[in-house]
Amino acid sequence: MGTKPLYAFLDLISLWVISELDKRRVPKLEIRNGAAYLSRELGTDYPFAHKALATVGSSVFGELGDWVDIGKSGQLAFHDTIKNYLRPVEYGPDELAAVWRPANGVWVNPKVQAGSPCVDGTRVPTGVLAALIDEDEDPEDVADDYELDVTQVIAALEFERAA
């Protein structure tokens, strides 16, 4: 009998989105207002895991048919203004977060390696590659062993060291 994880994938996506919004200096009040607005509009406990989000300056936008400023109770926004700022979360047909790409060359998929960060499009955990390199394995040898390109190994290492 297994234990229930403390956090579900949607919890992690939500925390990541809040962290990203904070890094982009979106005021905490706008984050709270945005979460409340999306929760009401979508009827969900995971508002930041449901829709594409973007920031422009200190404003946060959500896609609800049209792009709206969710921190300001849904003011309409111009798609062309914010399209280059979309977050790297992919959404499934149910509009829930399905895959997260927290860094170039890295993906998190709850159906692959129990949601551990992996080399994008593979089942190879970034932590395994970083551990091998930390044990003085040559990145090219590690890449050969896992049938990866050396740039993928370096991206995994950079991700792990930044974490």
Structural class: alpha+beta
* Main beta sheet: 4 strands, antiparallel
**Order of H and E elements:** HHEEEEHEEEEHHH
Q: End-to-end distance, in Å?
A: 31 Å
Number of helices: 6
Total number of strands: 8
How many independent structural domains?
2
Give the radius of gyration. Answer: 18 Å
Please render the helix and strand layout as text.
Layout: H1 9-23, H2 28-42, E1 53-56, E2 59-64, E3 66-69, E4 75-76, H3 79-82, E5 89-91, E6 97-103, E7 106-108, E8 118-119, H4 126-134, H5 139-145, H6 150-162
Antiparallel strand pairs: 1-2, 2-3, 3-4, 5-6, 6-7, 7-8
Helix pairs in contact: 4-6, 5-6
Structure described in brief:
The chain has six helices and eight strands.
Describe the structure.
The strands form two sheets. This protein has a four-stranded antiparallel sheet. A four-stranded antiparallel sheet has the order 5-6-7-8, covered by helices on one side. α4 crosses α6 (about 150-160) and α5 packs across α6. By secondary structure, it is an alpha+beta fold. The longest helix has 15 residues, at about 10-25. The protein contains six helices and eight strands; from the N terminus they run ααββββαββββααα. The model has no long low-confidence stretch (mean pLDDT about 85). β6 (about 95-105) and β7 (about 105-110) form a beta hairpin. It folds into two domains: about 10-95, no CATH class; about 105-160, Winged helix-like DNA-binding domain superfamily/Winged helix DNA-binding domain (Arc Repressor Mutant, subunit A), CATH 1.10.10. The two termini are about 30 Å apart. It is elongated.
